[in-house]
Design goal:
The structure is a single chain. The protein is an alpha+beta fold. The protein is built from six helices and 14 strands.
Length: 355
């Protein structure tokens, strides 16, 4: 699996965590189910689950906030996050037509396997994979969603053609799942920011890597576009995690900074794009059944600048990791999405560095 740093590109000055992944945030797991088949329908899809607190998020909530850069998309559970500022479930990411199924499957999981007696408003988000996958066949099931939760673990995260990113296209190359992390040292404390994206947006001429206009140098005669017209766009979901003691309003501030990283790569929030960003912080304990006073901690707002930088850098690198890791995929109706040509990119980067 190729990653951006294999090309000698390190975004920003803050160091990554050991896996350069959202799972570097203590207790944050990722689970994925990938579905690729030819019959009875051509399917290239899946589910990615970001699972905070080693799956104890159902009983120990986390402060949370979100931001819509462009709202032509879906993320469930947001009214209650607005109201309470708390996240109480994993975050499921899948295809557009089945975001409701993933949401309902998480409710079922909470009732049947977590013995939840109250109401559950889980978070599920989507991007559209109908160019490469027969979305109208509704191929995913409750069992797939539950399997993604069960598969959740720390460590290395499979990027590119995996989970919910299986059928996604980014900047007219094969896209999908990408992740990155940054470590922040503040006085006597060290905190981690982790980002995971499902990248399915953008036009090729806008693509930049570390500020270099890579997309302009890769013609359609070199790497064909996945569709006839060069104007199609999609969406991106960005999930941000940290172990810092942040309050809900501070999480919302972090979520807005994902826009900076997206813009650096070349995302502009086109009309047809669902660009939805969610950030959660596990540095406080929020027992769901607690009825007494809670002792909370928070970083002062003036300490957040490095967190803003970390979110922007990790978002940028996560998107580029998705592009670097993705592989050629042929799917629905014989359509093909080609990957970013890594050797060609290395040549372009070298040429700019030599100037």
């Amino acid at each position: 699996m190729t990653r951006l740093r294999d090309l000698g590109v390190a975004i920003g000055r803050l160091p990554p965590g050991p896996n350069n992944a959202i799972t570097d945030v203590p207790g944050v797991w990722v689970g994925q189910v990938t579905v690729i088949r030819e019959e009875p329908a051509v399917v290239r899809t899946g589910i990615t689950m970001v699972v905070p607190r080693e799956n104890e998020i159902w009983e120990d909530y986390a402060f949370c906030g979100w931001h819509s850069f462009n709202g032509n998309g879906e993320m469930t559970g947001l009214p209650w996050i607005d109201e309470s500022g708390m996240l109480g479930s994993p975050i499921g990411i899948t295809n557009t037509h089945q975001v409701g199924m993933v949401r309902d499957a998480m409710v079922r999981y909470a009732v049947e396997f977590r013995n939840e007696k109250g109401f559950i408003l889980p978070v599920a988000a989507e991007t559209y994979d109908g160019w490469l996958s027969d979305a109208g066949s509704f191929p995913l099931t409750d069992a797939d969603a539950l399997a993604a939760v069960d598969a959740a673990a720390g460590g290395i995260v499979t990027e590119g053609n995996a989970g919910g990113g299986t059928g996604m296209i980014c900047h007219e190359f094969k896209g999908g799942i990408g992740t990155s992390s940054r470590v922040i040292d503040l006085a006597m404390h060290s905190f981690t920011i982790g980002v995971l994206v499902q990248a399915n947006y953008g036009s090729r001429p806008d693509l930049r890597i570390d500020g270099i206009p890579i997309g302009r140098h890769i013609g359609y005669d070199q790497v064909p576009a996945p569709w006839p017209a060069h104007e199609r766009d999609g969406s991106i979901i960005v999930v941000i995690a940290t172990d810092a003691p942040l309050l809900a309003t501070q999480c919302s501030r972090l979520a807005r900074r994902a826009t900076v990283g997206l813009a650096r790569v070349g995302g502009v929030g086109h009309n047809g794009s669902g660009d939805l960003f969610l950030a959660f912080a596990t540095g406080n304990r929020l027992p769901s059944r607690n009825t007494t006073l809670l002792d909370l901690r928070m970083l002062p707002h003036k300490a957040l600048d490095r967190f803003f930088v970390a979110v922007a850098d990790a978002t940028e690198e996560a998107i580029l990791n998705a592009l670097c890791a993705a592989e050629t995929m042929t799917g629905f109706r014989g359509r093909t999405a080609h990957p970013l040509p890594i050797e060609r990119v290395a040549q372009i980067l070298s040429r700019y560095r030599d100037v």
